Structure formats: C-alpha cells, structure tokens
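Hi P.,

Sorry for the delay on this. The queue was packed all week, but I finally got your sequence through. Input first:
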Amino acid sequence: MESEERFSSQDSIEIVNALSPGRAATEATVRAVLGLDAETLHHGDTFTGRPLTRIIASPEGVVKWSRGRCLPVAEAREFCQNRLAEERRLGVHHPARTWCLVLRDGLAWPCNHTPRLLALHVGLAQLRDDQRLPALQAALALYVKAAARGARLDEGLSNFGLAGDGGVFYLDDDLYRWDDFLGLGAGLGVWFRQLAWLTPGQAQRLGVALGEALAQVALGAESVTALAQRLRDAMLVTDAQRERREAFLRGLAGQADSPPVAAPAAVSVSAAPAAGRLAVLADVHGNWPALQAVLAELERLGVTEGIVLGDVVGYGPHPRQCIQALRESTLRVIKGNHDNALARGIPELGFSRFARWALEWSAPQLDEADRRWLDGLPLYHQDPDFLAVHGAPQDRSYFNAYVYRMTYEDNLDYMAEHGIRLCFHGHTHVQGYYFRRGTLQDFGNEAVLELGSIDHGLICPGSVGQPRSRRPGAEFAVLDRAVRRVSFYRVDYELEATIADMARAEFPAPLMARLRAGE
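Then the structure:
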C-alpha cells in the first residue's frame, strides 16, 4: 500500500475492537471516513502530527494511521491488541476509540477510529470563560491518571480533545515512559506562555487541582517537589508568564493565601542588553589548565563579562578547581548535562562508557557545596539579544539534545516561531555556527561572524576543555554587541599537564587520546 493517501473501496477493513467493546465503530463507519481526503497537518492547526502520520476526518469521526507501519496481517492484529490492552489499562482515550485494520495484498495497516473531538488548543478559544479552566483541569487529571500507571502523555494541548458533553480525552497514539515530571514542567511552561487569558487566580486554582489529583493517586509531596523544580526550570520571559507560574506553584503547594514569590534562581533573565563585549564559553569539562588559559586571554582582551554554556565538569581531572574558579569569577554559568548528572545522580542511560567513568570518578571529588552549586545553576539564560542554552533551543530539558546537521533546521524553525534571533549553545564541542539568511541555510566556521549578515543563528563557541573540531586547544568566542559581531578564538594551554593528571588518576586512555587529537 505504497500510496495509501486515499484508500481503495477494494481494500478490506477488519474491526479489531474498541476500548469499550460495546462501542466499537462499524466497518461501514470506518469505510465512509477512509473515502475522504487526508488532512494537511501543520503545527498549531486543528490537526497536527508527525511526518508519517496520516489523518482523515469526517464531521463524526477521525481515522489515524502511520504510513511507516505496514505489517503482515497476523502481526498487525497483535499490534492492535497490544495497543488496546495498554489503552484500556490507562483509560485516558475516548471509550469508543476503535482499532481496525486496512488489508491489501496480504499486508495490513493498523488504524484507529475515534469520534470527532475538538483539539484543546483550538477548543479553548471557543469555550466560555467559565469552561476553560475545567477543561485544563480535566487534561491534567488524565495526565496524573497515566502517571500513576507509569506512563507519560504528551503535554501539548493539541493532544487533548473536547467531546460535545464537555469531557476531555487524550488524542495522541503515542505513550511515553515516565520521566519524573520533566515533560510536564516544560509543558506547563508552554501553557503559561501561550494562554494569555489565564489569570494568576486561575493558574493558582489549576495548581490546587493538580495537587489534589496527585494526592489521590499517592503521588504526593515528593511529586509536588519534583514538579515544582521542573517548572522553575521552564523558560518564561515576561512578568505575566512568571506570575502565572508562581501562582500555580502556590496552589500546587496548597498555599492559597501566600504572597507572590520572586522569580526563581533556576531561570536566568537579563532585563536589558549589556554594552560592550561578552565572552561565551562552553564545555570546560574539568580541564583547569585550559580554563586558566581562556581566562588569561579574556583578561588580555579586556573582556570582563560573559557566560559559560554548561558542563563545567566531566571528562577532565579538575572538577573542583574549575567549579571554584567559575564561582569566584564574574561569568554567568548555566547547567549542562554532566553538571546535572553530578548534582542529582548519574542516570542509567545517556552517557557513553568513558563519559560515565569520568563522572563516577568525579563524584567523590566534590563536596556538598559543589553539588549544591551545580544543582542551582539555571538551565538557560534569556537575554534581549539572544538565548543561551547548553543543548538545543527546542529541547525541553535544555541540555540533552544536540544542534548538528540533522537537527539544526528544526531548531532554526523553532527560533523563528518563538522570536529568537540568536542562540548560543554548547554540547557539540564543535566551534562554528548554523545560520539562515532568506532561503539559504548552512554551517559556517569562519573566525568572524557578522551578525548583520544572517536572519537567525545557532552559535557554538567550541569547547574550552574538550574540543572536537579536530584541533587541540581551548576554544571560546566573544560577542561584540556594539558592532554586532561574534569572533571565535582558540588558544594553546598546558595540554600535557592535563594529560599527566589524567594518567595519575588512571583515566581511560581513549579520553587522553581524544584530548590530544581535539576530537
């Protein structure tokens, strides 16, 4: 079925079952929808979805399937049965949601048919003022219901639908592993940015409702603490957005009458652009000689202000010296994934074998004050001229995703949609920049970037302590606001002193070899 954009009347349809067996759609109902044209999916429109997702809608029902899921019939039936079992366990979809197969030439495409619901991101604009907050509360109740069973729903409002009787159901086919409220913290941040109608009072009542829902499913005080931390890490840039968050957090904590709380330390926001030059460093990675050389070069250049884009620690043998130097400096520091791992515990996944070895070696080198400092670092810095993150601007965690050839276009799109012209990032350890100018977009690594020559830019200063540009040395950049220019630098440092300290601590040989090779 290479061209299943429009199904044929010759295709067979097999109804597998509905979540509530007595409410399954009929073959005729499904066939009537499949005879229509597929919807065009766009972010923010009534119907959204991934590139392989296909949706056909009638006024009464919606059929959804994936172009990439073509299976032998027996496997397709098993797939549908497994989906039914999981969706029945969670109980967040519409009870009449029906799984079925479209069969052709011995192959089958699993589809589902759901009564037509109004996506919440569209429906909220159509509801009365007194209906909006209950709809959001119902969506959060579904989220908590799934969380209590170890699953995470996609927090985007387009993934929840309103029924004609006011009920709210989950629309998305995808279910995710529980993530300790990482996604919900970022998702609520999006709600607080986008829902201009949400008053602080309504946000507080939303927090109260969520706290009560968590308590009812035995996700109580610890969950509230975890979610509050995640939400404090969310990117909010206006006073109104931050007021919604603080009111929500008061409600979540059951503090209905407490005064507003100041903007949290986990969010770094500059109220006005600074004059002059700004140093941009990234990925120090416990390499004290490299950091010393960069700080000395900045002093020679007369640059006294700057920002470090995360990963103070990891890979290198001097985590405490680097932490101490940056704590005493005038540089802002944001959090990287290695910093987070040492502050909160090294996760089972997400690090290579050698990166994990270095983190495990570094952990006992730090004291509690070091870990508290790492844990308190903000996840991003929002400046009137730019956004600064460790990982990628569209990443919900801000420090896990990479900007590279396969992802830079999506990140530039995200920046354009959110009014972000420039983003400084680390994590890749590759000095250079991805840019967009009109219809042209590409990567550049010239020594100077004239900001007036681009519309949007993703700029990596390279790595101070672990460069991967295939040249050893300590890399950084300087933003000159006055002339709108970014200059890239690489300085020599006592590399063999770092190697010698690594050897004394019995670091894996590949880590030393990579440092010498600049890769």
